[in-house]
Structure formats: C-alpha cells, structure tokens
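so ive been stuck on this for like two days lol. basically i have the seq below and the ligand is nicotinamide-adenine-dinucleotide, smiles is in there too. i just want the complex predicted, nothing fancy, no docking runs or whatever. if the output looks off dont worry ill sanity check it later, just need somthing to start from for the group meeting slides
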Amino acid sequence: MRNRVIVTGGAGFIGSHLVDRLISLGYKTLIIDNLSTGSKENINERAEFIHKDIRDEGIESLVRDYAPDYIFHLAAQIDVRKSLKDPLWDEDINIRGTLNLLKSASNAEIKKFIFASTGGAIYGEAINASEDVSPLPLSPYGIAKLTCEHYLRVYSQWNGLHFTVLRYGNVYGPRQDPFGEAGVVAIFCRQLIKGETPVLYGYGKMIRDYVFVADVVEANINAIKRGDGSIYNIGTGKATSVNELFNILKSLSKRNIEPEYAETREGEVQEVWLNTQRALQELQWEPQCSLEEGLKHTYQWFKENNGR
Ligand SMILES: NC(=O)c1ccc[n+]([C@@H]2O[C@H](COP(=O)([O-])OP(=O)(O)OC[C@H]3O[C@@H](n4cnc5c(N)ncnc54)[C@H](O)[C@@H]3O)[C@@H](O)[C@H]2O)c1
C-alpha cells in the first residue's frame, strides 16, 4: 500500500514544492491549508485538499480518518513583524495550531511528525550556529517555533511520538510571496521586474543564510527515514549580505535600479548563518544548489510570471 502523508501549509510556498515532490515519489498526499497566505494555484492537482484551519476542532477526526504515515507540518504565520505587533495572534496559530495537530497526530499513531522550524529566528545573533547553540529568539515568531520544538520533545517522551525538527535558513525560490515581509528574494525579483525601488534595511549589511527551496524539500524527504528525535539546521553554511544578494539579482535583471537604504527593523537580527554539519552526517543531506544558480532560476520564474 502507498504511504499516506499530510502536508499542512501545502498550498504555500515551501509546502507546495514539498507536495509536488512527495507526489512524484508516489505518496498519497492530503493538504490541509486555510489559504490565508497560500494559494489554490500552488496546489498539485493530484493532491487531496481540505480547506481548513489547523486550530479547527475537526482536525483530530480528519487526521484519524486519513490515517497518515507521516505529517509534515508547515502551516504557520511566518511574518516576524506581525508577530511583534500581535503576539497573541501569532501564538494562537503557531503554538495552539501546532498543539492541536500534535494531539491529533499522537492519537493517530503516525510514523513521524516532521516540523518546519526556523534557523533564522531562533538563535538570535549567530555566526555559523550549530544546533547546540542556546536559542535566543528575538521575536514572538521565534519563541513560538522554539516552544513547538519543546512540545515535540515532550510528546515524544509521553506518547512515543517520532519527530524530526528542521530549522530552515532563509528559504527562496519560485512561488514565494513577493508581497509578504519574509521573502526578500521574491520582493527584490518583483521590484526589479516592475522597475520599482527596493529598500535595503540594515543598509544592506544584514547577513543571512539563503537556501533554495528544492534543497529544503530534499531535507524533508531525507527526514522520513532519518534523524529521529533530532533537530537539524537546513541552510548552506554560507553567509550572504543583503547587498550581495541584491547585486546578483540586479545583474540578472540587467536593470540599472539603485536601492534605497534604511535602518534595521525591530525583531531582525543583524547576522545569522547556520552550521549544517549535523544534517550532512545524520540526514545525509547537503544543499545542491549554489546561490547564483538558485537566484537565476528564481528570477527567471518571476519574470515568466510577470513578478507574480
Ligand atoms: N520561508 C522561509 O524562509 C522560512 C524560514 C524558516 C521557516 N519557515 C517555515 O516554513 C513553513 C512554510 O513557510 P512558507 O515560507 O512556505 O510560508 P507560506 O506563508 O507560503 O506558507 C504557509 C502556509 O500555511 C497556511 N496557513 C497559515 N496559517 C494557517 C492555519 N491557521 N491553518 C491552516 N493553514 C494555515 C497558509 O495559507 C500557507 O499556505 C512555515 O512553518 C515557516 O515558519 C519558512
């Protein structure tokens, strides 16, 4: 019998790429998404889709009836600044929603729960951060993701739930929302295509670890069979400034647009990039796509989709 999986947030940017890959591998896939930031256009036509909020009471019976082998939990509110403005709202989706799913997962006796956490917002200022660095989140979004990681650990102790946590760096690629606050690559692609002036916060000096979405998808696939009970950074181990990133995209666009510069916004760390040695050793995962290749592919996609 084919393995059955649930992907929450499967109509979103990363979740939809994961669904495509799972389906190509033969998994029978159910997407649970409330379409708050995701879109129907992203949904693979071979997936089943249920329009539902992860906080909904009906989640428990839905999970029980579908009886998945694996749950990939990616549904979340992902906006750091919104989490600072309204921490209760962030907590409600990102903690209560996750708990609702965790409760359902442990009653359904699944094989594993794979959780999308954050490497960018959990450590605070962090250079070459390994998973052993004590987290020091600077935003409610980061606090919520860390809290969920603790719940997973405790659920595995109480109920024997198997889990893997993947702490993503700054993920970029086709289908990312260019109107959100989180995806600077998508925002710059759209602005360059539309001839608008990008704003480089932190005067473009902020450092991040940019990882291409297809590589993040493969980390999720490897986590099906490996990495039980562990946490992994999923990045490139490379530090890239926003200025460097913008310059690559600007040259790809062949447009002579000068950006504006502004102060760092609250809740944002100045420098964070990830050590990914544990993922290499235990998940047997390493990123395959260079920043130049990934940005070229992404810019091309936005161009073909008119800045989406
Ligand atoms: N994009 C990044 O750089 C990045 C970095 C670290 C971690 N992550 C994590 O990866 C996951 C996916 O992020 P993304 O960039 O694809 O964002 P996204 O906004 O494109 O995807 C999130 C999806 O979850 C859905 N959703 C939101 N709230 C929901 C709710 N209450 N009930 C049901 N569905 C809901 C949205 O409609 C959307 O389809 C998130 O958990 C995010 O925190 C992303």
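The pocket of nicotinamide-adenine-dinucleotide is lined by residues 9, 11-15, 33-38, 53-55, 74-78, 93, 97, 116, 118, 120, 168, 170-171, 177, 182 (CB under 6 Å). The CA atoms of residues 204 and 244 lie 8 Å apart.
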